[in-house]
């Protein structure tokens, strides 16, 4: 069968299969060289300079970006421009991360030689462990593949996927070794929705005062339903005792459960909230990050969390929509 007559879906699946197999094979080959690479980057006083040409250059740019956003200072340096004035960005104490599938790219090799003269350490990601690049870098990581995904076997596909994935693996390993957390991530991402979301504290967005849906234990269930509906229809109302301490919640799910209980709705609606409420509600600290509140909600399968003060009194409530708006995302 001629290639042009192949089903597009079959072609797509073949490409994904070839690239997935390349990654799986690389998992089995990963060895102490990876640990050495992570250790070398952690030990340098300077930054990581990534480089590569063509498709490898694109991978190098992405790797530098991922490293920088996860706690490892990094820049991309074009190998040609480096030799025409931009080499000044490289300093003693830096490490050059060179990406080349063949390991024989002249521009990358020339940059490597110049960087080593400056005093930078070197690390390579290459598909050819016998290459000039592999022989001349301090640490070499194997990103070789069995074959490219294109029918000609020459278009960088599986090879760039392998290099990209190993770059991600380095970045995340370094991220964990540096104990780079959500607050650090928020600090490095001040712009855009993601940065604003992670930077928010619960106290910045929680509902308080007149916006807080709350009833007393002795109030009727009908009062709780009315309060729940009138306070932006959050689907939850907090229940407090005479001293204002949080003792439970009533949710729209509780209302549906109660409606199925034996007896008329009128009888149940007239009963005290204390009889029907869910006790030990989930809470979150006002100083917690909004992203932490989202995680609690996702794990617990709920859409709101109560906030209490130092004496256990109901101080506020935060709903999933207060953090996310009406869209949906996961952390």
Notable traits:
single chain, 331 residues, alpha/beta, Rossmann fold, CBS-domain, 2 domains, four-stranded mixed sheet
Explain the overall architecture.
- With 331 residues, this protein is of the alpha/beta class.
- It is built from 16 helices and 11 strands.
- Helix 2 packs across helix 7 and helix 3 runs parallel beside helix 7.
- The protein is elongated, with a radius of gyration of 29 Å.
Number of helices: 16
Helical/strand content category: alpha/beta
Q: How many whole angstroms does the radius of gyration measure?
A: 29 Å
> Mean pLDDT, as a whole number?
89
Task: Count all strands and give the number.
Answer: 11
The rounded distance between the terminal residues' Cα atoms is 46 Å
The share of residues in extended strands comes to 15-25%
Q: Provide the helix percentage.
A: 40-55%
Shape: elongated
Question: What does the oligomeric state look like here?
Answer: single chain
Largest sheet: 5 strands, parallel
CATH class of the largest domain: Alpha Beta
Order of helices and strands: HHEHEHEHEHEHHHHEHEEHHHEHEEH
Shape-level CATH architecture of the largest domain: 3-Layer(aba) Sandwich
What topology, given as strand order, has the largest sheet?
A: 2-1-3-4-5
- Tell me the domain tally: 2
Which residues form runs of ≥5 with pLDDT under 50? 326-331
- Determine the CATH topology of the largest domain: Rossmann fold
């Amino acid at each position: 069968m001629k290639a042009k007559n192949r089903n597009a879906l079959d072609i797509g699946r073949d490409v994904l299969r070839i690239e997935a197999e390349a990654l799986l094979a690389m998992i089995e080959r990963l060895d102490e060289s990876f640990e050495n690479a992570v250790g070398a980057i952690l030990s340098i006083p300077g930054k990581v300079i990534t480089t590569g040409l063509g498709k490898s250059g694109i991978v190098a740019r992405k790797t530098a970006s991922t490293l920088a956003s996860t706690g490892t200072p990094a820049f991309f340096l074009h190998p040609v421009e480096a030799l025409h004035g931009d080499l000044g960005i490289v300093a003693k104490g830096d490490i050059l991360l060179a990406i080349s599938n063949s390991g024989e790219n002249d521009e990358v090799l020339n940059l490597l030689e110049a960087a080593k003269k400056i005093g930078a350490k070197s690390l390579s990601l290459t598909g050819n462990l016998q290459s000039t690049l592999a022989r001349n870098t301090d640490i070499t990581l194997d990103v070789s593949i069995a074959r490219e995904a294109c029918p000609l076997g020459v278009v960088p596909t599986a090879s760039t996927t392998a290099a990209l994935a190993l770059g991600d693996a380095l970045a995340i390993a370094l991220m964990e070794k540096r104990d780079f957390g959500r607050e650090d991530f928020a600090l490095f991402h001040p712009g855009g929705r993601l940065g604003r979301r992670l930077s928010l504290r619960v106290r910045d967005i929680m509902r308080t005062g007149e916006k807080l849906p709350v009833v007393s234990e002795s109030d009727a269930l009908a009062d709780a339903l009315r309060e729940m509906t009138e306070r932006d229809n959050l689907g939850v109302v907090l229940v407090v005792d005479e001293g204002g301490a949080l003792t439970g919640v009533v949710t729209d799910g509780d209302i549906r459960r109660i409606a199925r209980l034996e007896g008329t709705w009128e009888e149940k609606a007239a009963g005290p909230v204390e009889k029907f409420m869910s006790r030990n509600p989930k809470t979150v600290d006002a100083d917690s990050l909004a992203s932490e509140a989202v995680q609690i909600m996702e794990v617990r399968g709920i859409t709101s969390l109560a906030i209490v003060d130092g004496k256990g009194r109901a101080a506020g409530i935060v709903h999933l929509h207060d953090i996310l708006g009406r869209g949906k995302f996961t952390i």
